[in-house]
Amino acid sequence: TALAWAVAAMMICPVGVAVVLGVAFGESPCILCWAQRTSMVLMALLGLFILRYGPRPRYLGALVLVAGWGTYMAIRHAGLHLARDIGQGFAGTFFGLHTYVWSWVVHWVVLMVLGVFLLLVREDTLTPGLRELGKAGRWAAGIFVGVVAANALQAFVTTGPPPFLGQSDPVRFSWNPRHWVWMWREPWRGPVSLRGSWDVPRPDPARTAVDADPSGGPLLGLPVLNVVRWERVTAQLRGALTDLARDPVSGRFLATTDRHGVWLLDPTLARVEKYVRLDPFFAVDLGHLVGAAFLGDTLVVGTVNKSYVLLREDPQADELREWRHFLESSGGVRELRRSRFATVRARQMYVLSLAFDRDAREFVTVAVPSPRHRRLVISRFDAGDFQLSSEFVPRLGPGVALGEGRSLGEYVVTGAAVRDGLLYAMSAAYSTLLVFDLGSRALTAAYSVPEVRHPVGVAVGAEGGEILVAQADGQVAVLELSASLVPSSPLAEAHPGPADG
Question: Mean of the pLDDT values across residues 484-497?
């Protein structure tokens, strides 16, 4: 009797009420809603099988599988909206929870109740056999047929017959056939993945071929910037270089390499002063290291998935305590913190650079394009709390022109540095140095640098106009921007402070 009423309650409350919401209030289900509603119908059907034929293992096992599948679909659906801002979500709420969260609760309760049932049931009651449905069972079966028929009608109106699959953003329910929207292309858009649109491949310039020829880039008429001289990282680093930053106060360099190596080098790039190899799986998942910056006496290391690690030199660092952070260490370094940068416009994009704006006290990242998102996004984070300060897609400044049908999203920025309010970003694609005015949010200049191959980092040189571009092989190209080449923007003069986007 308890099982019969449980079946009836499942069909009346979540599945039946959903039909009422659609017919009476126009709240139509999306394709994920239909998946969860289907799993509830299947769980109720298996409950009827158990009522009729007894608790056979095949029915109990199928019930676990269906409930597990429905739980995943509910988490998959809720995960799209749970991280939104306060009060935001999809469709209406009941007692503060949206229907996709209630679906999660329902499937989880079914699994828990089934577990309790299997723990408490007597073995003699598990004998299978044909059983007569009692009054409660007949009521449950009748309710099941009626609610399923109503759902089938609603599904036909809102979704249509095969090959139509449903809508990601459904339209209001209507009995008028002229208002029906049947769709089949949208669910198949893009590659199929359990993560949906979050399935973005991580960029790896070392293994991804890019066109380094500046003449093929999207910007037109770029002046050529020649390398003044070449320097080299002669210190013995293990692994390929992934970024290089220079401390303007001490002149020392901070280098990162693959396999999560962090190296503090002297001003000549010849001697290693400190070295650690980060544990990439401790607390915060670290992708491969792509950025380095100095924040006073704090060393900041950024990763491709926008995580970051704060380090500091400390002669009294406890090696036993730091064992949890470092796979290897030269000693004298302790970890202060590791966490993540959170973006909005660049939320589904990776980064291959990290810069620090000393004047604005902000960190800067430049997103790289992916098969799903072909755009360039600049994000800025306050150095006080590491929260997002502003974020923008840069516009073109005066004198900068794109080819027809081209965009800045074709550039792959692999190194960046900030000086005097200007962001110098080096793109491995098309070997181009991009100069952005952070005040006006505009690309004010760009230069082709054909001599540079596989750039991984940008640093500000010791001299006023020098820009250092580090390559993966340890060579460092020294570029000199004379006063006539340094861009200036009247908008930057009118708005000297950091923008608030």
Answer: 47
- pLDDT tens digits, one per residue of 248-295: 999 999 999 999 999 999 999 999 999 999 998 877 888 899 999 999
395-396 vs 442-448, strand pairing mode: parallel
Separation CA 30–CA 188 (nearest Å): 15
At position 293, the amino acid (one-letter code) is A
Structure tokens at 218: 């999207």
Residue 103: CB partners within 8 Å, gap ≥ 6?
14, 33, 36, 40, 70, 73, 74, 77, 78
Is the model more confident about 463 or about 297? 297
Distances, alpha carbon 297 to alpha carbons 90, 263, 292, 360, in Å:
46, 15, 13, 17
Give the separation between CA 59 and CA 43, rounded to whole angstroms.
10
Handedness of CA 226, 240, 302, 191 (dihedral sign): positive
Q: How far is CA 403 from the centre of its chain?
A: 30
Average model confidence (pLDDT) across the chain: 86
pTM, to two decimals: 0.75
DSSP H or E run through 151: helix 135-158
Residue 318 to residue 334: CA distance in whole angstroms: 8
Q: CA–CA separation, 402 vs 336, rounded Å?
A: 44
Whether the bond into 223 is cis, omega within 30 of 0: no
SS3 letters across 15-33: HHHHHHHHHHHCCCCCHHH
Three-class secondary structure of residue 75 per DSSP: helix
pLDDT at 497: 39
Give the dihedral sign, CA 258/264/266/272.
negative
Question: What is the DSSP code (8-state) at residue 224?
Answer: B
Dist CA 453 CA 432 (whole Å): 10
Task: Name which of 47, 41, 39, 65 is nearest 3 in CA terms.
Answer: 47
Residue in the block written with tokens 């181009």: 432
CA distance 277 to 392: 33
Q: Are 443 and 408 in contact (CB under 8 A)?
A: yes
333-340 β-sheet, strand order: 289-295, 298-303, 307-313, 333-340
